[in-house]
Every structure is written in C-alpha cells, then in structure tokens.
Amino acid sequence: MNKIEHVGIAVNSLSKSVPLYEILLNTSCYKTEIVASEYVNTAFFKTGESKIELLEATDDDSAIAKFLEKKGEGIHHIAFAVDDILKEMERLKANGFVLLNDMPKKGADNKMVCFLHPKSTNGVLIELCQEIKWI
C-alpha cells in the first residue's frame, strides 16, 4: 500500500454537506460523480496530499443508506492507493483478510476498487484503489 488515497464520509445530503466541507477545508469540491452500481453520489475534495470523499445514498437498499440508518453520518471507510490491486488482493486474502468482492470493480474518481470486510480489519472498512491507466 502506497498511501491513504482518501477518507470516505457518509452524509445524508450532498447539497447540505458540500458547502459545509468547502468552508471547513477552505477548498472547492473538485468533482462530483454518480456511481450507479453502488447507488451512491460522491463529491471529492483535495487538501494538500489528502482527499475526502462524501457519499450520499441514491437508493434505500444501498450500503451507504444502511450505514446511515445504523450509524448516522460519519467516517465510512479509509481508502489506500495500491500499484497492483490484483496482487494486493491476493496478498491480503492469503493473510486471512476477507474481501468483499472477488474482483476489483469500477469505483469513483477513475479508480478500480476492492473492499475488505471490517470483521477482518478491526471494524474498519478498508478500500483498495488503483488508478485506471488509459492507453
């Protein structure tokens, strides 16, 4: 793992949370994106080397909606940048970590992603992110 790529924060409303985080971080949201496969709208902020991703559910049955119902707004996951997501998934699985998906999938912000089950990471949802390289 190279670095923390971003911290994901579940929010009830991007329209209310984006202005709040723009003031808090003293920077503008640089990108919003719908990830239809995950039933989520996202908004991204960059401050220094760090990024924050706000996540808003678009469906009551989505993982974010369930998280918000159970825990309320707050930190949802920590994402780590990796060079080779398949190799990293194999390494972690061989070391007993539980992957939530067998193959990486397209995520937001031009990334392939895979999540690790919180039960195998001391209660923290971990996301692996690999930048999609275009030829």
UniProtKB/TrEMBL annotation:
Any Pfam family hit: Glyoxalase_4
UniProt cross-references to InterPro entries, sorted A to Z: Glyas_Bleomycin-R_OHBP_Dase, MeMalonyl-CoA_epimerase, MMCE/EMCE_epimerase, VOC_core
Superkingdom field: Bacteria
This protein's UniProt keywords: Metal-binding
GO molecular function, one term: metal ion binding
One BP term from GO: L-methylmalonyl-CoA metabolic process
Signal peptide from the UniProt entry: none
Residue span, VOC domain: 3-131
Family assignment from sequence similarity: Belongs to the methylmalonyl-CoA epimerase family.
PANTHER family referenced in this protein's UniProt entry, alphabetically: METHYLMALONYL-COA EPIMERASE, METHYLMALONYL-COA EPIMERASE, MITOCHONDRIAL
Name of this chain's protein: Methylmalonyl-CoA epimerase
Organism: Pedobacter psychrotolerans
